[in-house]
Structure formats: C-alpha cells, structure tokens
Amino acid sequence: xxxxxxxxxxxxxxxxxxxxxxxxxxxxxxxxxxxxxxxxxxxxxxxxxxxxxxxxxxxxxxxxxxxxxxxxxxxxxxxxxxxxxxxxxxxxxxxxxxxxxxxxxxxxxxxxxxxxxxxxxxxxxxxxxxxxxxxxxxxxxxxxxxxxxxxxxxxxxxxxxxxxxxxxxxxxxxxxxxxxxxxxxxxxxxxxxxxxxxxxxxxxxxxxxxxxxxxxxxxxxxxxxxxxxxxxxxxxxxxxxxxxxxxxxxxxxxxxxxxxxxxxxxxxxxxxxxxxxxxxxxxxxxxxxxxxxxxxxxxxxxxxxxxxxxxxxxxxxxxxxxxxxxxxxxxxxxxxxxxxxxxxxxxxxxxxxxxxxxxxxxxxxxxxxxxxxxxxxxxxxxxxxxxxxxxxxxxxxxxxxxxxxxxxxxxxxxxxxxxxxxxxxxxxxxxxxxxxxxxxxxxxxxxxxxxxxxxxxxxxxxxxxxxxxxxxxxxxxxxxxxxxxxxxxxxxxxxxxxxxxxxxxxxxxxxxxxxxxxxxxxxxxxxxxxxxxx
Length: 534
Fold this sequence. Notes:
Elements: H1 15-30, H2 33-39, E1 47-50, E2 53-56, H3 58-68, E3 74-85, E4 88-97, E5 102-112, E6 115-124, E7 135-143, E8 155-159, H4 174-179, H5 188-195, E9 199-204, H6 238-245, E10 251-256, H7 262-268, E11 271-274, E12 294-299, H8 302-312, E13 336-339, H9 340-345, H10 348-363, E14 370-373, H11 378-403, H12 410-420, H13 424-444, E15 449-453, H14 466-486, E16 490-498, E17 505-512, H15 518-532
Parallel strand pairs: 1-6, 8-9, 8-10, 13-14, 13-15
Antiparallel strand pairs: 1-2, 3-4, 4-5, 5-6, 7-9, 10-12, 11-12, 11-16, 15-17, 16-17
Helix pairs in contact: 1-2, 8-15, 11-12, 11-13, 11-14, 13-14
C-alpha cells in the first residue's frame, strides 16, 4: 500500500484511524484472515456487502472471507473522511489495481474499547467485462432473437451443451472444446426461444460433461452464488443459474439428468423446471445419459417461467414438440402428497421450514389436502439410477476420456472411472429394478402432486472439503433421482429460507406431477407460492 503521504485526503484522517485502515488494507493484500476478522466489529450487527450480496454478522463475514481468497495487488489513491459522531467515522477510498481499473470501498468505523473496528462495509470492485467462471462467450446480445413475440425483451444464457450454429460445444472442458467442431445447426430448444423473441446473451459454463451437481469447475473456476455469497452455485447448470441469479440473463436454458436444474435453482433462490422426459426435443444436445436427460429452464420469478413454458411447450411456440396442451391445458388437482422418506432425509432446519410452509398452506384461504405417503427407500432409486446413468455416460464419453486421460478434473474423472466398469448385466439389472419404481411414482401422481423440499439443505460453502461436497451430492441425488427415474416434470420454487454459516439461505420446494402437465405444473407452483406468501 502507498504511504499515507501518497494518498490524497489522508492528512484529514485521524492518525489512529488511518493506522487501523492501513493495517486492514495490508491484511487484504496478504489475505491475512485472522487480521481481517479482527478488523471487523464482533456481533450480529456487523455488515459487509458487495455486488454478490449482503452478509450480516461477524460469523457470516468471517465464513465468506475463507472462500474468497486474496485480492489482486492494488494501491489506495484517495480517501475521504467524515466524522459522523464522536468515535464514529465514514471512510470512502478509491483503489487502483496494478492490472488496471479502480475500485471503491465504503466503510463505517467505530471506536470500540479504544480500538477502531469496521461495523459496516460496502465494496464496489473494478468493472469486469467478462466473468469467465460464468460465461464461455457473451454478447449484447450474442444472437438477436425475433423482434416480436411472447418472449420479446428477455435474454437467455445457454448451457454449454447445446448446439449453436457457428460455435463449438465445450461441455465444461477446455480440451474437449479445442477438439470440437463448429456446429452447423442450432438446437431446436434454442431456436424455440429465439423465435419467441428472446435473445441469446451468451454460452454459459457447465460442470464437466454435466456430471456433477455442485457447480464447481476445476478448469474455469466456480461461478458465484447469486443468492448466498461464498456458497457453491449448484450444478451442472451452474453457469446459466448464476447468470440468471446475478441479473446477467433472464432465462437459463439448461439440462436436468439427476437434478441439474432443480439443485442450482434451490441453491440460488430461482425457479427451475425439469420438463417431462422426451417432451422437449433434445436434438443438438450433448448427452450425459439419454434415459434421463431432459431440457429445463431457470428464471428469477414464476411469471417469466410461465411465459417460457407457455411458448416453448405450445404448438405455436415449438415446431417439434409432439404432445403439449391437453392435460397441461387443465389445472392439476389441488392436492399434495409428501414423501415420508424425503422428509426423513432433509436437514433439521429444512424440515422445520417445510413444516412451517405446510402450516401456512393449511391456514391459507386456498388450503389444500396434504397427505404423507411412502415412495420407498431412496437408495432403491438412487443405486440403480446411478448404474444406468454411469453406463450411458461411459458410452457417450468413454472413448474421448480414454484418449485424453489427464484432461478431466479429479472428481468427474473418478465418476467416469466407476462408470467404465459397469457391465451390461449390471445395467440390465438396474433397468429392471427401476421399472416398478417408476410405476409407483406414476400411480402416486395420477390424482395428486408430490410436494417436498428440493434438496436436503442450503448450498455448501465454496471452501467445503471434497468429502463433504461428495456427501452432500449423494444425499441430494437420493432426493432428486425419483422424478428422473419416472421421467416426470418437476419444478423447484424458492419458498423456504433456512439458516446457514453465510446467513439466511434459500432452499427450494419441489412439486412433481404426471407426465405432460408441465405448463399446468408451473401454474400450480405459482398458486402455491401465493397461498403460502406471508
């Protein structure tokens, strides 16, 4: 950091406050977590905010700092000091980065027991033209949609698995991207959105080969969680989800094999719809496991998701969707069944929040019957699902992975290694095991809608150890795979808030209905949100 004499305005700052400020700045550059913790006032009232969101309480701020890492080298150019009251001061400083650009720090300092401490801070970082953890390529727009239509004015972040004419599919892996050829046509699911008036904002990141639900990527970095700074974003549709949650796009076009729309929706407080398996055309989509892969969308609100579903799943909107209205043109039964095995699998805070939601529904003017049912042990779904998914994933990617053994990150490489040893007999037995489970779910949703928390709890911290992330992954997949096994439409809506180390965190509520009722399911989820609203 520059010497005090080199900072414009430093002469006006009291010497002890300036020393505290300088010490804090040195700790920032060195990423000295202990010193940074000491600089912020203890207690639940201390605040820190930036473009990613607001953290309240010293504990949440401390947890976030452990996820962020240091900042690039910079110097303080200018500082403005205002005394607000005895022992209370406002400091606003401008920093210039060695790599170019400036940032702004606004801090409220208070003299506590003879020591200056920060009680509130807001950071405006230098402008970033492209967050490469979110986007592979981006434009304004990258591709203009129709000038008029049901989706006019909306922008789309497309997961890097869909074909776009003139661009290569990267699948979250730079070596794969380098070896790919430019696409000669655009996927029908992308074209449908463009025909409706939406414009392509850009191609957004995915977890490698879509074989993850955490949202981290060893090659490109981890996209930010737009709802909970310092937490994982959820995957494998991490890029589109983060783009929507941070306001960089209105729609995320994504895929859901085992929860890759619903999990990031839950983690980032979004609406996310996994469509009925096979309803939306998958031509031009790089597959993970065709028996379960389906197209889905992420939005910030239910109204936008309704616009997308109404257009893309209607005969007017889609040139290739075979079955649309009919059942979906009618409302689903206003009756819910809650899987007992799922409730037993969620974290305690999630269960409390969900039971509070059920109580709010029961006391609302739009109360609905709610029954607890059994769907069977969750591992009965997850274990054979994982076997079939692995067999198909290896058929789709094994040849390439074998030819590029060092190109894949460790976690995904281990999953593919396990997939490589699945035998034909293993796969056939798993498929047989899944058939009665799918029939059981189809019977349950014949006259009701499944209702449950989307995931066990809030998004894990970005610094969570690999074994912790993997444990959360397995616990989550046990909850998300039943809908995939049955090929049912399933929607996560941001209706729960639970405590976490990083502060109040969103958790989704999932509604799952019979096949082909996707449009009606969005309507039902919006009705549910209105019924339980405070």
